Automatic annotation (TrEMBL):
Keywords: Aminoacyl-tRNA synthetase, ATP-binding, Cytoplasm, Ligase, Metal-binding, Nucleotide-binding, Protein biosynthesis, RNA-binding, tRNA-binding, Zinc. Homodimer. Residues 242-541 form the Aminoacyl-transfer RNA synthetases class-II family profile domain. GO terms for biological process: threonyl-tRNA aminoacylation. This is Threonine--tRNA ligase. It comes from the Bacteria. Belongs to the class-II aminoacyl-tRNA synthetase family. Its EC number is 6.1.1.3.
Length: 648
């Protein structure tokens, strides 16, 4: 008998050789119908893999991330079989599962594939799936595997196998198809009920542009047709919410080939939006005891050598700037923290002076490959809402919790309500990519774990995700479409204070090292605004909107009254403008809707006579306008702002 430990901690006894599917069946038939993958002692296994030792078993369904991974990995095999049957002589390479679906890289030789072929490929995949072929794993020697692919004249698989050790090579078989594979499959192809080929693209073998360009076919599959329909609808909604599209429509930002890739130009409305976000955070930071600082856009190379950033990220930086002085090198600033360390170092400190909290909206520059640039989410120049807190070890817990409070305030004010906190720690095995002593790392990691626990955060732990100088608490936000983004980070750092020889005089009159907290609730202004745009579809919280209202006069006769309304609104600090163009009121309303303006204030003869405005809300087509005084409207605006913008 063997002992199988389940995720809830319960232990069940089984005969040796029991399979994960047998275990599922022993729990309930309903679970067995839905189980599509499993892991045993942390290793992915098939649902029919015999279990012969004691261990921990996790059963996965479609609702689990690992279940989807197995589903899509299995689907890539079915796609490969379909392609091989439709296009004889092609050479298969690799076909992994990805976040949404899977792809397969193929050398099509003389064949070509375009979107015109997608429907035929989908039909073939479904035809294979309906046969309910089982996925079966088998081992092979290195010699057998090499011989097989040499006979098929497939140099890609031969190259993969040559880099594998004998005794570790496995294949997956289904129907008449076989493929080099490590495992992790659904029970049979029949579970695949819906498929969509998403796109076709070029991809260099192993990502090296010196190698041959292959054809990459992206696809996605689901256990129900309804799931595919919902997914495609979600994609359409994502296109409508794309921040690049909305940024252009709302006239927030632009890019110029002459200026350079990945370097956004902020237009007047976008610049005003950024400024409101900055002032919002600066106001909260001032109450929290932060002092504003400003640092240069460049720094001597030695600064980043000292911090350790150059050794880790030098290859991803812009090339050094050489001055007329021989041997003098500067870099475009890739981060703000070394500069803030030097600000701290400008004078001696006592423990009575700490904590010191330095904040800066600092623009930094990092070289990103042109193929990885994407709107505002991946750029080469971006502004961080950066701050660094220098405190004593005894102050660390309280200071860290205060930063958590600030991040939560930012999220609540901007409508990010669905989030979790990721505790990002060192890799358990590979410690070479980190600087500092184990002792300092353990203190830093424990500080984050304890603070997150005390604040009652919903947390997950991820090993290997720490910064090279310290662990992090990363806030993972789900947007309106259910997509997850990393927004906001807090890091504990014992290492940079050592590298910069930062000190303070303690109560014992001896010099000690401060602890450093890095924090950025927005992360970067560019990325934050991109995610905010997509989450709200451009309907920002009222306090943040570029224009909160637009005044629409029914004709030229009422322009003077429209201007009077504008002055009164400005007295109430309501951002508004007048549209007095010689256009129909219907067209003015339609254009105001496109601009996402929250309120349209229509003025004509009756409004001028009564000293009122006719108020129409964005998105309220078909509903009656409300007549109210300026004071009533100002109260309405303030009431709506107060719903989201709380006092910190």
């Amino acid at each position: 008998m063997i002992n199988i430990t389940l995720p809830d901690g319960s232990v069940k006894k089984f005969d040796a050789g029991v399979t994960p599917m047998d275990v599922a069946m022993s729990i309930s038939e309903g679970l067995a119908r839905n189980v599509i993958s499993a892991s045993f002692n942390g290793t992915t296994v098939e649902t029919k893999t015999p279990l012969t030792t004691d261990g921990s078993l996790i059963l996965y369904t479609w609702n689990d991330k690992e279940g989807k991974k197995a589903f899509w990995h299995s689907s890539s095999h079915v796609l490969a079989q379909a392609l091989q049957e439709m296009y004889p002589g092609i050479k298969l390479t690799i076909g992994p599962a990805i976040d949404n679906g899977f792809y397969y890289d193929v050398d099509f030789g003389e064949h070509t594939v375009s979107d015109k072929d997608f429907k035929a490929i989908e039909d073939k995949v479904l035809a294979i799936a309906r046969e309910k072929y089982e996925f079966t794993m088998r081992s092979a020697t290195k010699a057998e595997a090499l011989e097989m692919y040499k006979n098929e004249n497939n140099p890609y698989k031969v190259e993969l196998i040559e880099n594998l050790e004998d005794g570790t090579i496995t294949f997956c078989d289904h129907a008449t198809f076989t493929d080099l594979c490590r495992g992790g499959h659904i029970p049979n192809t029949g579970i695949i009920k819906a498929v969509k080929i998403m796109s076709v693209a070029g991809a260099y073998w192993r990502g090296d542009e010196k190698n041959k360009q292959l054809t990459r076919i992206y696809g996605i599959t689901f256990p129900k047709q309804k799931d595919l329909t919902e997914y495609l609808e979600l994609l359409e909604e994502a296109k409508r919410r794309d921040h690049r599209k909305l940024g252009k429509e709302l006239e927030l930002f632009a890019f110029s080939a002459k200026v350079g890739q990945g370097l956004p130009l902020w237009l007047p409305k976008g610049a005003a939006l950024r400024d409101r976000l900055e002032q919002f955070l600066k106001k909260a930071q001032k109450k929290a005891g932060y002092e504003q600082v400003v640092t240069p856009h460049i720094g001597q190379k030695e600064l980043y050598v000292t911090s350790g950033h150059y050794a880790k990220y030098g290859a991803d930086s812009f090339q050094p700037i050489h001055t007329p002085h021989e041997g003098e090198e500067f870099l475009l600033k890739p981060m703000n923290c070394p500069h803030h360390c030097e600000i701290y170092n400008t004078k001696p400190w006592s423990y009575k002076d700490l904590p010191k909290r330095y904040a800066e909206f600092g623009t930094v520059y990092r070289y990103e490959q042109s193929g990885e640039l994407h709107g505002l989410t991946r750029v080469r120049g971006f502004t961080q809402d950066d701050a660094h807190i220098f405190c004593t070890p005894d102050q660390l817990d309280e200071e860290f919790k205060k930063v958590i409070d600030l991040v939560l305030y930012v999220f609540s004010s901007l409508g990010f309500e669905n989030f979790s906190a990721q505790i990002s720690l060192r890799d358990k095995e590979n410690r070479e990519k980190y600087i500092g002593t184990d002792e300092n790392w353990e203190k830093a990691e424990n500080a984050i774990i304890n603070a997150a626990r005390d604040k009652g955060l919903n947390t997950v732990v991820e090993y290997g995700e720490a910064a090279f100088y310290g662990p992090k608490l990363d806030f993972m936000v789900k947007d309106a479409l259910g997509r997850q983004w990393q927004l906001g980070t807090i890091q504990v750092d014992y290492n940079l204070p050592e590298r910069f020889e930062l000190t303070y005089k303690g109560s014992d009159n001896e010099l000690h090292r401060p602890v450093m907290i890095h924090r950025a609730p927005f992360g970067s202004m560019e990325r934050f605004i991109a995610i905010l745009l997509e989450n709200t579809a451009g309907n920002f919280p009222l306090w943040l909107m570029p224009e909160q209202a637009i005044i629409l006069s029914l004709s030229e006769k009422y322009e003077n009254y429209a201007k009077k309304v504008l002055e009164l609104l400005e007295n109430h600090e309501i951002r508004a403008l007048v549209d007095n163009r010689n256009e129909t009121i219907g067209r003015k309303i339609r254009e105001a809707e496109v601009q996402k303006t929250p309120f349209m204030l229509i003025v004509g003869e009756e409004e001028e006579k009564n000293g009122t405005i006719s108020v129409r809300r964005h998105g309220d087509a078909g509903k009656s306008n409300q007549s109210m005084t300026i004071e009533e409207f100002a109260s309405l605006v303030q009431e709506e702002i107060n719903k989201t913008l709380k006092t910190f």
